[in-house]
Amino acid sequence: MLTYTVPVLLVVLLGAWIRRSRWRPEGFFPAIEWFSFYVAFPALLFANTARLDFTGTALRDLAVATLVPTLLLVGLLVSILPLARGLPGPSRSSIVQGAIRPSTYFGLAVASLLFEADTAALVMLALAICLPLVNVVAVAALAWWSGTRASPARVASMLAKNPIILSTVAGGLYNVAGLPLPGIAANALDILGGSSLALGLLCVGGGLDFRWSSVRPVSLAATSLLKLLALPLLAVWLCTLLGASPAVTAAACFYAALPAASNAYIMARQMGGDAPLMASLITLQTLLAVVTVPLAMQLPAWFAA
C-alpha cells in the first residue's frame, strides 16, 4: 500500500519545498489556496456527491461506522479536556480539530489510486456524510474555547459561508431531488475537481511546519493516537457489529484513518485557536499517515480473524 501513500506524500513534500524555495512567485500559495478552497474543491464535492448512491444498507452502515465514532470521540474530548487545567482553551480547540477532521485531499488522492471505483465512491460518500458534522464541531469548539465566545448567530454565519459544507449539502440535495447532472456541467465540474487534488496536496505541503520547539508533546502524541488509531479501531469495530460489507468496512476504516485536515490550521488561525499546535498536528499526522493508513487497513482482517 506504500505504492499509493508515498506518491501522495511526495506531492505534499513538493509543496513544502516550493514554499521554501526562492524562485516561488509572489502570492503563489494564497492564490492556489483560494482557488482550491473556494472553486476547485467545492466543484469536486458537489459533482461527486450529486452522483452518489444514497440508497440501501451500505448508506446506513457507513453513516453509523463514521458518525458514531466521531461523536464518541467528541464526547470523550469534551469530558476530558476541561480537566486539563493547564491546557489553554485555544489548544483544546486545536486538539478537537486534530482528532476528528480528515484530510480530504490526502484521502481522495490515495483512494483514487488504492480502491476500485465502487469502494472509492464509498470513501467519497463517507466524506459527504461526515464533513458537515466535523466542520460544525470544529467551528463550535473554536468559538467556545477561543476566548471570544462567538454568538450562535456568528457560528451559524461561519457555517453558512463554509464552501465545503455548502457544496456537500448542495450536492446531497441535488442527489436526493433525483435531478440528472447535465453532461456539459458534469464535465466542467470534473475538470475543476480534478485540479483540486494536486493543488490541495501542494497546499498541504506548503502548510507543513517542522518547527516544533514550542509544541506541547503530550497533546501532539495523544491527539495523533486518537485520530490515527482510536478512530479507525472504533469504525472497524462498529462495522463488525453491523455485519457491514467488506467494501463499506474498508471505506469507513480508511476515512477514519486519514490525517488531520490542512485547512484546520487556517480555521485555527482565523478563529483564535492554537495555530502552532494545529500546524504541528497536521505535519506529524501527514507524515505518519504514510505508515499508519496501511496499518489501519489491516484492521478489518484482524477483526475477522
Brief description of this entry?
This protein has 14 helices and no strands. By secondary structure, it is mostly helical.
Question: Can you give a write-up of this model?
Answer:
- The protein has 305 residues and is mostly helical.
- It has a single domain, classed as Na+/H+ antiporter like fold.
- It has helices spanning 2-20, 28-50, 57-80, 89-100, 104-114, 117-145, 152-160, 163-176, 183-206, 217-242, 246-257, 263-271, 275-296, 299-304.
- Helix 2 packs across helix 9 (183-206).
- It is globular.
- The relative contact order is 0.19.
Furnish the topology, listing elements before pairings.
Layout: H1 2-20, H2 28-50, H3 57-80, H4 89-100, H5 104-114, H6 117-145, H7 152-160, H8 163-176, H9 183-206, H10 217-242, H11 246-257, H12 263-271, H13 275-296, H14 299-304
Helix pairs in contact: 1-9, 1-13, 2-8, 2-9, 3-4, 3-6, 3-10, 3-11, 4-6, 4-10, 4-13, 5-6, 5-9, 6-8, 6-11, 6-12, 10-11, 10-13, 12-13
Sketch the major β-sheet.
none
User: Helical segment tally?
Assistant: 14
Tell me the domain tally: 1
Order of helices and strands: HHHHHHHHHHHHHH
| CATH first level | Mainly Alpha
Report the uncertain regions. none
Rg over alpha carbons: 18 Å
Shape: globular
- For the terminal residues, how far apart are their CA atoms? 21 Å
Task: Please indicate the percent range of residues in DSSP E strands (runs of 2 or more).
Answer: under 5%
Helix content: over 70%
Multimeric organization = single chain
Mean pLDDT: 87
- According to CATH, the fold-level topology is Na+/H+ antiporter like fold
At CATH level 2, the architecture is Up-down Bundle
User: In total, how many beta strands?
Assistant: 0
Estimated structural class: mainly alpha
